Please model this.
Amino acid sequence: MKPSFLLSSKAGKVFMVVCLSVIVLVASCGKKYDPVPEPVGDAKIRFVNALHGSAAQDFYVNGTKKSTTPLAYGATSENLTITSGQNAFNLNDAGSTVVNASIQGNVSIGDRFTFLYFKHPEGKLVLAPVPDVASNPVAGKANVRFINLNTTLNSQLTVHTVGVVSPTIPSLGAQAISDFFPVDAGTKFSFSATGWLTATDYDGAIVAGKTYTIWIDGNTDPANKQLIGHIFEQN
Model:
């Protein structure tokens, strides 16, 4: 699965020309060829409800409900095994048939994705895949990356490692995802942004040899705006 599933108009035209050329070539040969089926295999996906204040969500793959327990805000689902190829994914409020957010695209054999459910800064509900990248920590360390999912944040988010003077990430924009950073087991972080109260130290219970993604959002109380950290382990 690629980050975007839509061809540009230019790419679409090129694709059409190639297809038409193939049709003409086959017709000129005067022979009929059976198409070679695409190989299929397993891929792994999971879902994260990253929408502050949302109802618990049911998740669906190709129109079939896959959640046995609705996914509450901040929760990460178990991994699901799906078949590669064209797939469609959507989230609904638990017990509802109304689709809140959806996405579809071609999934390759062996792909591993985490789908994040959140609100775009323009107000649209979004279901976006983040690749579960293989990242092997060096001996005695863990690897951590960060995602800014705070859609009400009017300035850049800064990530600090507790006990280190210089910020780990001086500026992380909305919906941006950082590189991986090697850290010690038990490392804590804090998050800051203009107009927000500095969050208390965030402890994700980090273990050496593991790889993690930490996503940051915040509450919606204008009088007490706090940044909130959440963590899930990479596959």
About this structure: Residues 26 and 33 are 8 Å apart (CA to CA).
